[in-house]
Amino acid sequence: MKSIKADQIKRVVVRGANWLGDGAMTVPALRELRHLLPHAHLSLFARSTTAGLFTDANLVDEVVVSDRSGWLSLGNEIAEWKRGQFDLAILFPNSFQVALIAALASVPVRLGYAAQGRGFLLTHSLPAPEWRVSRHEVFYYLNIVSELERLLHGTSQMMEREPDVSLQVSDERQIEASEVLRRLGARDGRTLVALCPGSINSRAKRWPAERYAALADRLIDELDVEVLLTGSPGERDVSLQVANHMRHRPIMATGTTDLSSAIAMLSLVDLLVTNDTGPAHIASAMGRPTLVIFGPTNPLTTRPFSAVAEMIRQPPVCAPCMLRDCPIDHRCLTAISPDEVFQRAAALLGMSEKLKFVELVGPPGTSDKLDLVGHP
Question: How confident is the model at residue 209, as a pLDDT?
Answer without folding.
Answer: 95
